[in-house]
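User: When convenient, might I ask for sequence and structure tokens for a protein?

AI:
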Amino acid sequence: MSTICPFDAGDQAALEELLSRPHPATVDALRAAEGDILILGAGGKMGPSLARMARRAADAAEDRRRVLAVSRFSDPAARAALHDGGVETLAGDLLDPEFVESLPAFPNVIYMVGLKFGTRHQAGATWVTNAYVPGVVSRKFANSRIVSFSTGNVYPFVPIDSGGSRESDPLEPVGEYGMSAVARERVFEYFSTSLEVRIAIQRLNYAVEMRYGVLVDLAQQVASGQPISLAMGCFNCIWQGDANELALRSLPHASTPPCVFNLTGAETLSTRDVCEKMGRLMGQSVAFRDEPAPNALLNNARETLQLLGSPTVSTDQLIEWTAAWVAGGGATWDRPTHFEVRDGKF
């Protein structure tokens, strides 16, 4: 697989195009999941590129389906960019049951609603977002397919040589955010069983692109010369474009009870090895602190990748692209992942 970067450092337009470019398998999946697509919580980090990918895949399938992105849309520029990509938008608050009830009953729903950061200081907001809204949405879209994003934080830490948690493993989260994420899954599970709602749950861990994510966090630390903590000695990640595709490809698999997919890359990455490679690429010496723990938050995505397809962008490519982007002064978002947090308090 070529490691040549398909965009220049800082070229956000080219980055956005690649993030939203669907492969034929994604186009075929949408053909198997006929009907309009509603994306709830589309204003976050992943939502805009996933919405544009859904629009492009639908166009490639040569059907006339609508793609509608719903969010509060606090950033007008993000909303305008979606319109430019042919995606319809609707602004509203999903905590308002009347607004949810007013939404069109599209046959395909991508659920991207969630709250993580700030849980320590606003636990109530986290729980109502993660555990209440899924019930409202399930009742409204009882006749739809729903792909719901979840998180690897529903799992406990596992030994770094274990290969990661599997979908059938017990859910034993660390911290209140992880607990609320389990609640989200359980609420969807209840309504899937009681109302026969077809649902696919995506336990994501972690999506990355050039402007945010675990690799950007590490590259920025390498560039600054600050000692990098090895407390979380290993992690998983996946190119956001691949995560978008696998989520869309899971639509035809939505079922009752819900099917579950670990959504991440195929490898367990060493924090030390990744930083040392970035240091070589960026011409920076790298210093570390803390001893690696014997366990980490890790997902095993083997079954997902066997069913839905392998990532198109390798981890070596991601590391090289990220190092070049950060070293070249490409724009980044001030949204650290805090992947190194081990007490579950975000």
